[in-house]
Amino acid sequence: MYFAARPNRKEETFGSLGILYAILEIGLLDFIAYFNLATIIIVVPTGITIFSRLATTHGTKIFYSRVCGPTGVVLANSSLDIILDETYYVVAHFRYVLSIGAVFAIIAGFIPRYPLFTGLTVNSSIVKHLFIVIFIGKD
């Protein structure tokens, strides 16, 4: 679960080295593990990243601007994963993570660099409309 937090004081991310290793481990396990096994194994580094983010936001005022990722956390429970196996829930999770997650990551990486390439700034209302069109009009 990701959310935007505006800390009252300037602070560093809690467990940033642990988060780095957890993200590298998630990427490595995605390449070598098969679906059910990957879901059960990847829960450990994902839990490290989730709890590090929660620890970072401790004592801050949180503004919920977006929430994403709870489908993977639900599938990390092995009993629920067995029950939900071969259902539309798992299909929707993979489609969201693989397609929309990748597209949003590409756009999120491109928009801050657009002024470097062209010398022009991006209109924020156009970007918000682009987000809505991609998110709602995916299927």
TrEMBL record:
GO terms for biological process: electron transport coupled proton transport; mitochondrial electron transport, cytochrome c to oxygen. Residues 33-139 form the Cytochrome oxidase subunit I profile domain. It catalyses: 4 Fe(II)-[cytochrome c] + O2 + 8 H(+)(in) = 4 Fe(III)-[cytochrome c] + 2 H2O + 4 H(+)(out). It is a multi-pass membrane protein. Pathway: Energy metabolism; oxidative phosphorylation. Keywords: Electron transport, Membrane, Metal-binding, Mitochondrion, Mitochondrion inner membrane, Respiratory chain, Translocase, Transmembrane, Transmembrane helix, Transport. Belongs to the heme-copper respiratory oxidase family. Component of the cytochrome c oxidase (complex IV, CIV), a multisubunit enzyme composed of a catalytic core of 3 subunits and several supernumerary subunits. The complex exists as a monomer or a dimer and forms supercomplexes (SCs) in the inner mitochondrial membrane with ubiquinol-cytochrome c oxidoreductase (cytochrome b-c1 complex, complex III, CIII). This is Cytochrome c oxidase subunit 1. It comes from Glossina palpalis gambiensis. The lineage of its organism: Eukaryota, Metazoa, Ecdysozoa, Arthropoda, Hexapoda.
